[in-house]
Amino acid sequence: MKPTLLILAAGVGSRYGGLKQIDKLGPNGETIIDYSVFDAMNAGFGKVVFVIRESIEFDFKEAIADKYSGKIEVDYVLQEVHKVPKGIAINPERIKPWGTGHAILMAADKITTPFAVINGDDFYGADGFVAMGKYLMSLSADSTTKYSMVGYRLGNTLSENGYVSRGVCAANSKNELTNVVEHTQIERKNNRIEAFDGNNNVIELEENTPVSMNFWGFTPSIFNHLDQMFTEFINHNIDNLKSEFYIPTVVNQLIHTQMADVKILDTTAQWFGVTYQEDRSGVVAKLALLHAEKVYPSPLWS
Questions:
Q1: Is pLDDT above 80 for 178?
Q2: What are phi and psi of 186, to 5 degrees?
Q3: Which of 15, 143, 211, 285 lies 20 to 30 Å (CA to CA) from residue 122?
């Protein structure tokens, strides 16, 4: 059974100044999502589901609806602030949806296979999809709690324009995730990679340290966990208008309660993304180089 790709694309681009998910960044007008879908198809994925918001639905579908026709099955779900479990009364002042964990939960009725989750505004590289696709397709029927995460090598995720924050991964002897700790102000200095750890100490990190870039692999069993944990989350955060239900928080809890194992899948792929408008020119240049080096055909979709 072919796995599904779930793309989180509900952001409205307030920091970017527009819908970065459909911004034409490739040399032939390709979006970053185009590359993810292209790489996923080549890695054996059979379906893509987009999580979007009603306010961007028309523009989003207009930009991509016909592009993948006949190539891969496509579906959509809407993430809205009012889409919560039955019986939950939300604060009427809440405006934004509830974060990435909430976004995944929206797709519960659309996914019946093992699936991967990515951000719609990040470039993950073909090798990452190959690693994830191979793992998901190797799962047996009883592998319901065998989750995974593509661990990007820290040196392949750094920015040339300043420091970044990354979730640094700890693993056991089986290369299974044991914890994700947020490190901040990571940058390369004098051929060293320095960062502030969780206790605000300056430390040195190795080039190949695995970090999480929100490229997760799950089975449909995750939806039951999300439903229960999201209900508990809202009940505790009902009056916190900025609280968000994040995927890493869910994964950490499942690991620490021994309800799931998470395999770290190594990749040599280069990661890059667009958060701010200032990121755009660098991404455009990187994508143009990948086409020039024949990593991708031009145009990507014929």
A1: yes
A2: -85, 125
A3: 143
**188 CB-near residues (< 8 Å, 6+ apart):** 155, 158, 194
Contact indicator for 273, 119 with CB cutoff of 8 Å? yes
Question: Which one, of 52, 31, 21, lies nearest residue 120 by Cα?
Answer: 21
Strand stretches in 190-260, DSSP E: 192-196, 202-205, 210-218
- What's residue 67's pLDDT? 84
Query: In the structure encoding, which two tokens stand for residue 207, read together?
Result: 């080039």
94 SS3 class: coil
Which residue, 45, 61, 116, 25, is CA-closest to 300? 25
Q: Which residue has the tokens 């916190």?
A: 240
Q: d(Cα 285, Cα 228) in Å, to the nearest integer?
A: 44
Structure tokens at 135: 């793992």
Half-sphere exposure in the Cβ direction for 27 (13 Å, CA): 15
d(CA 76, CA 149): 23
For tokens 């979006």, name the residue: 31
CB 153 within 8 A of CB 147: no
3-class SS of residue 256:
helix
Cβ atoms 165, 188 nearer than 8 A = no
Q: What is the pLDDT of residue 167?
A: 87
What digits encode the pLDDT tens for the residues 258-296?
A: 999 999 999 999 999 887 777 889 999 999 999 999 999
pTM for the model = 0.92
Cβ-contact 13, 20 below 8 angstroms: yes
Nearest to 46 by CA among 104, 112, 103, 107: 112
Give the span between the Cα atoms of 141 and 177, in whole angstroms: 22
Q: Which two tokens stand for residue 247?
A: 């995927």
**Nearest one of 72, 121, 48 to 280, comparing CA atoms:** 121
